[in-house]
Amino acid sequence: MRGQTGPDFIEALARGLDxxxxxxxxxxxxxxxxxATAAGLARPTARRxxxxxxxxxxxxxxxxxxxxxxxVLELGMAYIGSIGMWDIARxxxxxxxxxxxxxxxxxxxxxxDIVYVARVAVPKIITLAVTxxxxxxxxxxxxxxxxxxALPREERERALAEPSRAGITPRWNPDVEERERVLCEVRxxxxxxxxxxxxxxxxxxxxPVRDDASHVVAALNVSTHAAETSIExxxxxxxxxxxxxxxxxxxxxxxxxxxxxxxxxxxxxxxxR
Length: 273
Prior knowledge:
Helix content is 44%, strand content 19%. The protein contains nine helices and nine strands. A six-stranded antiparallel β-sheet has the order 6-5-4-9-8-7. A three-stranded antiparallel β-sheet has the order 1-3-2.
């Protein structure tokens, strides 16, 4: 249930987004009744929203069920394109993957979850499928620990108080004291290794990507299968390459953010904030 909303809140738009979020890996196609239940809406309301989304091309109806169409990707990619992070990170990540032979991902924090915003993968069988837009509980991932450790305590508590929308039950569930001890270590060390805390077989290391000396804007990882890659290999061989790559992405990101942007006829150049 939603909390307090302001006078400018558009309930119809919020309900439409609820319908889009109702779909997922465990519910790729649903009947009208299933959509209404999953989104917490009355059946007539859900029907009107689905028909609207179908007309706009975001939903496809067939055989009494509804499913999302690839056009929904436009909504997420608009965000990716707007921050420019993927274009900056891609060549560095491709070089990192070529040197390690392992997949690499970039993620940002969304409440208690991480959301993958860039990924260069190698064809290996892993426990959990990951694509751009995938979300996992932040605390149990190396990417999430880096991002949570960078937050002030109060902001971190607010983020973790939000319910996860990842749809997965992690293996590691620490109490507050253990959680804060781990995140303090991450903050002091500047990187983290996570060993099968999210799911069996997933082992990874991650480091922060910054837009200045203190502000963490994303986290970068190297992820491996635990049965194939030892902790020693991760920390001794891959970690230096990961830190080098994270620093290179950070440097390019800072150069982009500091570059004057000129619009013809608009007067003095403006620097993005």
